[in-house]
Amino acid sequence: MKVLIACEFSGRVRDAFLERGHDAVSCDLIPNETPGPHHMGDVCDILKDGWDLMIAHPPCTYLAVSGARWFNLPGRREKQEEALKLVSYLLRANIDMICLENPIGVISTRIYKPTQIIQPWQFGDPFKKATCLWLKNLPALIPTKIMQERYPGVHYESPGPDRQKNRSRTYPGIAAAMADQWGSL
After folding, report:
1. Engineered SS bond to 8: which of 26, 58, 77, 88, CB 3.0-4.6 Å?
2. CATH of the domain at 53
3. What total number of domains does the chain contain?
């Protein structure tokens, strides 16, 4: 399967698909953290390259409810509209199977509600981080390993230069579940 992992710098989801024999490429505006196939640039430039599956992680800075207290600051509404246009564009891409992932936020009220909301603790990582999935021609992910211990996770990431990156990485258990369950379709 030819898989595009849009807006991913960590390589976690890409690598999970590569490990299972798929032709997977990550794409982001910033360099990749790990070696592997990566397009550094605008995902819109490669959306029409014949992908079978796209898993998109658009930046949540102007979309997530966690940033709602800043939505009314000057310039933020315009940036939110730009972010929503990207989300709409990705969801309408001419790709057979699409998963768009983002935290709880304005996508649910401005575009449409997610197909599924998952937590890392459902997939073997003992952390809380409600993650919405908007799915096109994909089944909902089935939990793989329910963890009884559940920690706050990235919500309390300390301020600093890597805060945004640390909060946006996909948990390994979720990446593996995506590759195992959707890679066999």
Report:
1. 26
2. 3.40.50.150
3. 1
pLDDT under 50 in the chain at which residues? none
Q: What is the pTM for the complete model shown?
A: 0.92
Beta sheet of 38-40, edge-to-edge order: 38-40, 23-28, 2-6, 53-56, 97-103, 131-136, 116-118
Which is nearest to 58 in space by CA: 45, 39, 43, 47? 43
Please tell me the distance from the alpha carbon of residue 25 to that of residue 48, in angstroms, as a whole number: 14
Q: Do residues 124 and 147 touch, judged by C-beta distance below 8 A?
A: yes
Q: Which domain holds residue 167?
A: 2-182
Contact 55, 184 (CB under 8 A): no
Please tell me the distance from the alpha carbon of residue 31 to that of residue 19, in angstroms, as a whole number: 21
pLDDT digits (tens, 9 = 90+) for 41-69: 999 999 999 999 999 999 988 898 877 77
